[in-house]
Amino acid sequence: MRRLAPMLLAALAVLAAACEKKTQPTPSGEAGTQAAQGQAPSPGGGTPASADTILLGQVGALTGGQATFGISTRNGIELALKEANAAGGVNGKKLAIRVYDNQSKPEEAAQAATRLITQDKVVLILGDVASSNSLAMAEKAQAAGVPMITPSSTNTTVTEKGDYIFRVCFIDPFQGFVMAKFAREDLKLGKVAVLQDNKSAYSIDLSGVFTRKFTEMGGKIATTESYSQGDTDYRAQLTAIKKTQPDGIYVPGYYSEVGVIARQAREVGLKVPLMGGDGWDSEKLFELGGSAISGSYFSNHYSPDNPDPRVQKFIADYKAAYGGVPDALAALGYDAARVAIEALKRAKDLSGPSVRDAIAQTKDFPGVAGTVTLDEKRNAVKSAVVLKVGDGKTQYVTTINP
């Protein structure tokens, strides 16, 4: 035992160092580039809080299965903060942000939120995208009285966690209605199968709403099959779906699974269109799905085809900063940060209750992903667009209003 003791101590030291590194924040301005290259974010911090600095926090998936969501959102938030600081900041103070990677895991999201609240003492949290992660964060933020704005978590229960939790996107009951209406009235589909992720609050919520609304509109649900996030073989479920001879398949999941599902659907002989929600919105969808995903449709928050000068300026600025066309996650991250910044300007002070009250007063805010008005449940009331997936790009089809 004595001979093993030095080795044991050395091993424990390595383990402790690894744990310490894991909890380090991502530095402002570097996360997007590094994560996009498949590298781990560098340890270190953003600008520390001071008398002349207002520190915000962000939690997002910079690695893991939903990494493109977190990177896009991070870029949009960063762009908004850079613009605000260039214009003088908030009441003479500069804005800084501390960013943590939740690795696409709810438990990591909860731990990151706790660090932002207890260690970093942020005045406000932005994030996450995936509803399961935001739900885990919302409990921590609400309990601590720290306002939290999710850019794009659409599950209804997120803002139900309490009066400190907000969102700048539409919610799943509306999004599920949008695709049900489009499937029934535009595509003229009579019988649709559903393939849902049974470990995702987002997917289950959308599936339930779509099923109810599509049925109310006179359509029929052929069958409902399930998978779990991270699965790679969906052929059994797709074969079962094929036997029901549906006119289309509703797949309210994330791009990381949907692209593979599309390929395997074609492999088993399913030629009908796939439909989904905003979780499809990623350039990786085209890479994973290839030609198999072409001809499918999904609901989303905005379209780069929108000619509005405000939208086109955002796209131009984003391209200049990050080298690509921003997706809806980037647009919503940008809007969430700008809503937060305007609320900070209006707040009587930087206490949790004052910032919360200022956010709640958001009305007719001119976002790039639609005009934002927060209702009494702290949800944004806004339109949705339907996009068609083509050869490596999306095409605007229609707008559906609340």
SSE layout:
Elements: H1 4-22, H2 31-36, E1 53-60, H3 67-86, E2 94-101, H4 106-118, E3 125-126, H5 131-144, E4 148-150, E5 165-167, H6 172-186, E6 191-197, H7 201-216, E7 220-227, H8 235-243, E8 248-250, H9 255-267, E9 274-276, H10 284-289, E10 297-300, H11 309-322, H12 328-346, H13 352-360, E11 365-367, E12 370-372, E13 384-389, E14 394-400
Parallel strand pairs: 1-2, 1-3, 3-4, 4-5, 6-7, 6-8, 8-9, 9-10
Antiparallel strand pairs: 10-13, 11-12, 13-14
Which features would summarize this protein structure in a list?
globular; 43% helix; alpha/beta; 402 residues; 5-stranded parallel beta sheet
Structure description:
By secondary structure, the chain is of the alpha/beta class. It is 43% helix and 17% strand. It has helices at 4-22, 31-36, 67-86, 106-118, 131-144, 172-186, 201-216, 235-243, 255-267, 284-289, 309-322, 328-346, 352-360; strands at 53-60, 94-101, 125-126, 148-150, 165-167, 191-197, 220-227, 248-250, 274-276, 297-300, 365-367, 370-372, 384-389, 394-400. The chain has a seven-stranded mixed beta sheet with strand order 7-6-8-9-10-13-14, with helices on both faces. Helix 12 (328-346) packs across helix 13 (352-360). It is globular, with a radius of gyration of 22 Å. Mean pLDDT is 89; it is low at 1-48.
